[in-house]
histidine kinase
Amino acid sequence: MRERTRQMWRGGLYLLIGLPSAVATMLVLPLLAVGVMTTAFGGLGLVVFPPMMMGLRWWAEWHRSRAAALLGVPLPPRRTSLPKGLRAQWKQALDRESRRDVLWTLQHVAIGLSAGLLALICVVGPVTTLVSVPLWWLYPEGDPMRVLVGTPVRSWDTALTMGGVQLLLLGALGWWTLPRMSRFHARHCMKALEPSVEDQLTERVDELTESRAGVLDAHGAELRRIERDLHDGTQARLVSIAMRLGVAREALDDDAGTLATLLKEAHEGTEEAMVELRDVIRTMYPPILADRGLEGAIAAVAARAGVPTEAELGELGRLPAAVEAAAYFIVAEALTNAAKHSGATRATVRLSRQGGRLLVEVTDDGIGGVDEGRGTGVVGIRRRAAALDGTVLVQSPAGGPTAITVELPCAS
């Protein structure tokens, strides 16, 4: 009984506060429309509109916190601050959460007004009945007080009976309606401002895509650092050691015996280690990428390919190092396959950027019939693309031609 009474008063207060807020929310969409239209006046809306959307976010979050408190559920935080930069602010002002905020205003006006008016009747009605019914005798004889469905009150018997019935009905209406209506309003408020399952998955994918871009940048920077350290440090020291061993071998007599043999083995072992180290560096991050960039590296690969190759390079912009390395190795592997197995007389390499994806196309006029089941280099190309969440399409009918198209995500 006591808990039910508490719920009734909490629900009534919640809905009564929601009534004027719903009236105020009716002004939101016209104000936002004005903010957009001011873009035509000196671009004022470009600066004004994002803060207006953030103000709507604060307004929606206040209602969301009230709803969560009424329902007794945790409140997952949402971003309530503007990022730096006008472009980032507009991106946030037009994101999914902002669209949910706008749709919430329509729902809040519709539900808040009707639920608030009902709460007003349930709360104010009993108070009005208690105050006005005892004063029935002050009303003129020709226009008496009326209760319930218009019953005139002309005596104390009618006032006490019909007024009491009206009071009980209003109390019962509030007792039964206010807790349910307030929870209904709160649940719909929470639902309107929380992402759907599809939106959650989409936002999660966006987060993973953004974090992957950061990882690729960090990975690329680390690859360049390791390549530079190996090239300038370890390899240089190995070269120095090999030169000294060579000088020592030249200085020894031919009859030095065991010492000469040991020096020879050490010298040859050092040179073999340098060759292996160069291979590791080229496999990790080709030095030509650091020296010439991706465009220059692809041009060099095309120039020294085993089949005459034409390179068509579009405007690529800045790419993560890992994407550059993957594109370089994909082109090199595809041209190697064309030279070894296709019998091609001509090949073409095309690189272009389409939004957040790098498109790599390698075609040749060879005999076609690529069979990945035989361990061709296409398997390695697929693995390199898959490591970056890229896609590979191979078109190689018998008789040719062969076209390998690779898409690599490169948004940073």
About this structure: The mean pLDDT is 76. The two ends are 60 Å apart (CA to CA). Residues 199-284 form one domain. The chain has eleven helices and seven strands.
